[in-house]
Amino acid sequence: MKSKSIFSPQNPCLKSIFSTPLESLMATSLDLNDDSLCSNPQQQQTETHENSSETALLGEPRGYLSGEARVERAWGHWSKLGRPKLIVAPMVDNSELPFRMLCRKYGAEAAYTPMLHSRIFSENEKYRREEFTTCKEDRPLFVQFCANDPDILLEAARRVEPYCDYVDINLGCPQRIARRGYYGAFLMDNLLLVKSLVEKLAINLSVPVSCKIRVFPKLEDTINYARMLEEAGCSLLAVHGRTRDEKDGKKFRADWKAIKAVKSALRIPVLANGNIRHMDDVRTCLEETGADGVLSAETLLENPALFAGFRTAEWVDDGEEGNKDGLLDQADLLVEYLKLCERHPVPWRMIRSHVHKMLGEWFRIQPQVREDLNAQSRLTFEFLYDMVNRLRELGVRIPLYLKEKDSHVQGVPEDGLAN
Ligand SMILES: Cc1cc2nc3c(=O)[nH]c(=O)nc-3n(C[C@H](O)[C@H](O)[C@H](O)COP(=O)(O)O)c2cc1C
Question: Could you tell me the pTM of the whole model?
Fold first, then answer.
């Protein structure tokens, strides 16, 4: 099934939010979208685009329910989705449709879209068309927004609710751009506003609202925060066990004890995020936190087959018994990803980013191939397939490994999605 932009192309006359094609290919939106994502409307190029068929509601709004009924409904929904445990975390420019589909093929049971900016999403048809695509197989799906205005958030959310299972609010982004735009983790300083965002969606949408948070330095604050979100109508909470100041995931370990405390304090499903690098981490995290599922981000970028039990050499302990070459390597995954991109087109900057992440190890061994890639201001699929062939001809292979006990984790179809 081909992907479609949910939003029909109309007046595609907006200037690109990127200043030059090269920049747009080289940078992530987090780096470059500062102005376009900034909260000041004067700085935006906007376009009003109203199309009632795009905003069709699914069924009745959920309305206000008492605590007990809300918790029951939260679990009913989660169960209807099959209680997914292995989940692709939201990643700007990186958890787009083809990448989600690749991860789903290799064991992911649900996925988040990248963070979408609610105001730009409400106003700008081109942004919607380029930044949010999905297809029938792309479920269960969380569509994530950042926001600081409940009405604007609701307007954006209404456009996606027919195509997703949760509308998620990003309450964890710690980047400079989020400080400037006043969203993400910077709303931890304004919990009344956070409450109003959650309530607005919980009362008016037909799909449940979920939130993704970071922890406060003090456990008690984190627990009060999580309880407030549940009370406001949040149906599922993902907890990234790092504080707003702990930006570097490699430097700071996520605090699973804090996640465990949140799980114990809440009655809705809770997901754990941070430090999930292979299936042993998944098992330990679920056991130690009691969480209902895990999200993984950075490791999946390098190894989208993580949830099928594959691991990079970095996570194979020397002398450990039972590890075998999984007969899959990162170049195979990249080729599958590229085929998915041909089927489900996305901006080239996203593809470029995945090429660097998936082939990072190869590039360290063959830096001239990376230089050739960087020299291309415009990419083509032909160039990228040729590049993979060149790497293979150079005789390098970076295998992914399987532990005996993980071989059965997920049945990976032999033919694959990429055909
Ligand atoms: C490239 C990249 C983009 C990200 N974008 C988002 C985002 O759009 N929304 C969000 O809530 N978190 C975002 N994150 C944070 C991840 O979802 C996750 O919380 C964080 O990386 C910790 O998980 P990990 O230890 O598995 O990497 C991003 C992370 C990365 C690496």
Answer: 0.86
